Amino acid sequence: MASHAQNDGAPSPLHRRSPPRVLLLRKPHHFSLINRPLPDNFHFLKPWESPLPFDDFLSSPDARAAEAILTYGGAPVTADMLRRLPEARLVVTASAGLNHIDLAECRRRGIAIACSGDAYTDAVADLAVGLLIDVLRKLSAGDRYLRRGLWSSEGEFALGSKLGGKRVGIVGLGRIGLEVAKRLEAFGCAISYQSRKKKPYVSYAFYSNVYELATNCDALVICCGLTEETHHMINREVLLALGKEGVIVNVARGSIIDEKEMVQLLVQGELGGAGLDVFENEPSVPEELLALDNVVLSPHTAVYTPETLSDLCDLVVGNLEAFFSNKPLLSPVLYERTGCSAGIGSVTTTKPDSVGFT
Amino acid sequence: MDAIGVLMTCPMFAYLEQELEKRFKLYRFWDFPSQRQFFKSHSGSIRAVVGNTKLGADSALIDALPRLEIVASYSVGLDKIDLGKYEEKGIRVTNTPEVLTDDVADIAIALMLGVLRKFCGCDAFVRGGKWKGGDFGFTTKFSGKSIGIVGLGRIGSAIAKRAEAFNCPISYYSRSEKPHVHYKYYPNPVALARHCRILVVACALTEETRHIIGREVMDALGPEGVLINVGRGAHVDEPALISALLEGRLGGAGLDVFENEPEVAEELLRMDNVVLLPHVGSDTVETCEAMADLVVANLEAHFTGKPLLTPVV
User: Fold this and answer.
1) Which keywords accompany this UniProt record (chain A) (predicted)?
2) Which of B247, B251, B295, B299 has its CA nearest to residue B272?
3) What is the CATH number of the domain that holds A257?
């Protein structure tokens, strides 16, 4: 925990000090979407309400007094920003991904980071499983077929492929990956995974690289974070290894997959199908995909359920209150003892009482 | 064995036809322009019938085939088969249980996810180029929602097992309470519907279960409730379903079966809070082959004097 600037002894509970200043990098749409007001025991700085351009706003006395930053995926926390906010001791991101935060700089400055913890886990895992079943059992395609009147005029719809017995490879066995695995096991799928390190306490087969995972699986589900290492990690070789009947599901970040290659392979029939909630260039989706019946497309909706956003807002508020009451963060991001790799650091995210799972 | 005449009632699966042809003399009922002519010429040769849920072997057919010994149904459902008559005449009946349980349970969960998370709507949104104009909007979380199962047989139990992995609390209605089952039991479908968010029909179609889901059950399920049917269309009072959905008394529905397949009511085709499938419950390559293998194996067993693998009668 970062030390409290104002005292060396007893902690200062939130209600006894002036409301901590929290810089919002974007409009808090997670709160507004569910009509949740921002908590009134904090002073939120809203750059979009200022006549100053953002850069000048950062230099203003108001901003310089910010003790915490609240951000979302896509609103970067850069080294430059952190240098200009000397009082900032906490970054709260309402996202599972961390690729928009300069983790090395945060670590250097002793800045604590809180992420979305488990708030998104179920919703994203549900979507991943749903996309896989949809592709294999042709749910959306079947619904389209029926609504177009083809059941009456053309007869029986095409056969799908059974989920049970499929070998499914999870890329990235973090919170979301684990929940995807647990669900798919109930359908009779055989689970294996690829991760930076083999997980202790996990009985699924481990592969150290995605090519080997793809070679030994019928479907891949991408659940890892976007980092320099994972950018375009799912490339042409990996997709070819997955094969003509292979299915890829992505609920993580679009650029983990080499999208151009994937589209080409789908069009050529070298890849069996895809279920995608994320794309390299949202909201643009490659034209070719729009005409394919063996893909299921989703507009990055994984976390957009009222229940999920409500949990997320609770967590954001909970983390802010905990930090400024000198209590442990509810969903802290911990730095790996092995240190950060060049550029974006490698990190572990964990619940306070869990045992080193990523 | 290829002197044995086997009548197939309608097209089902090319692989099944091939396998039957290898072993028997196969008659395709739909190839004959006149049924009367067919019976006149061939009824004496037919010793087995392969039927399915679209076209089973009813009373009339049984009466027209004096040498009929066995009906092997390419289905688990027996609602198109006059069981009493078979028993009377000493005709054996087999179906295809177990092999399709997983597939049907998978489709039930797929329908639940589809209705709540609006997969079809989201896919259409992207394909229609609408994402550039703004976000899709909310869908409803599936994990943790309470699920009520009507009929806790093989398929119902398989649905429960999958739903539990999503942390969904499970309750059920069945003709009688099952011992050794840890799900909550309700003595009637209305009570079950009152206590769950998603109600799924997974029981067999019999005289008692015809229209088991009527207006009262739907009202009990309510404006946030979702009805899933992977049983038979006749389990649900379809006109009542349509008005409940149109009037907002029921939140949504996922249907793999309809009262009058392949006809589906216009009103349903226009709704975006429903997912509609053309009876694909067991329609995977793997399961169809397994079902076909079972039909063939049952016939072979019968005609070589061995015990039937999956007899019903």
Assistant:
1) Oxidoreductase
2) B251
3) 3.40.50.720
- Are A66 and A209 part of one and the same domain? no
> In this structure, are residues B277 and B107 in contact, taking their beta carbons and an 8 Å threshold?
yes
Per-residue pLDDT tens over the stretch A123-160:
999 999 999 999 999 999 999 999 999 999 999 999 99
Measure CB to CB from residue A146 to each of B122, B141, B278 and give the nearest one.
Answer: B278
Segment A81-107, tens digit of pLDDT: 999 999 999 999 998 888 899 999 999
Q: For chain B, how many structural domains are there in total? A: 2
Catalytic: B261?
A: yes
Identify whether residues A213 and A237 lie together within a single domain. yes
Same domain? A163 vs A275:
yes
Q: For residue A178, is it within any domain?
A: yes
Q: How far apart are CA B313 and CA B311, in angstroms?
A: 6
ipTM of the complex: 0.91
Contacts of A162 in chain B (CB under 8 A): 102-103, 106, 284-287
Is A134 in CB contact (< 8 Å) with chain B?
A: yes
Q: Are residues B163 and B266 in the same domain?
A: yes
Q: Does B263 lie in the same domain as B128?
A: yes
pTM: 0.89
Verify whether the Cβ–Cβ distance B126 to A125 is below 8 Å: no
pLDDT category, A13, cuts 50, 70, 90? Answer: low
Give catalytic residue positions of A. Answer: 253, 282, 300
To the nearest whole percent, how much of chain A has pLDDT over 70? Answer: 90
Query: Is the Cβ of A27 closer than 8 Å to some Cβ of chain B?
Result: no
Residue A83: inside a domain? yes
CA distance B239 to chain A (A): 18
Between chains, do B286 and A131 touch, taking CB under 8 Å as contact?
no
By CB atoms closer than 10 A (0-12, 13-18, 19+), residue B180 is exposed
Distance CA B133, CA B129 (A): 8
Cβ contacts (< 8 Å) between B262 and chain A: which residues?
A: 151-152, 155
Q: Mind telling me how many Å the CA of A63 is from chain B's nearest CA?
A: 31
- Residue A41, C-beta contacts closer than 8 angstroms, at least 6 positions apart: A14, A15, A19, A321
Q: Residue A210 belongs to what domain range?
A: 121-297
Distances (CA, A) of B210 to A295, B79, B214, B259, B279: 37, 11, 10, 11, 18
Give the model confidence (pLDDT) of B101-147 as tens digits: 999 999 999 999 999 999 999 999 999 999 999 999 999 999 999 99
pLDDT for res A350:
37
Contact B119 A160 (CB under 8 A): no
Q: Which two tokens stand for residue A41?
A: 């025991």
**Contact status of A197 with chain B (Cβ, < 8 Å):** no
- Assess whether A127 and A104 both reside in one domain: no
Q: What is the pLDDT of residue A147?
A: 97
Q: Do B111 and A283 touch (CB under 8 A)?
A: no
Known catalytic residue: B224?
no
Query: How many structural domains does chain A have?
Result: 2
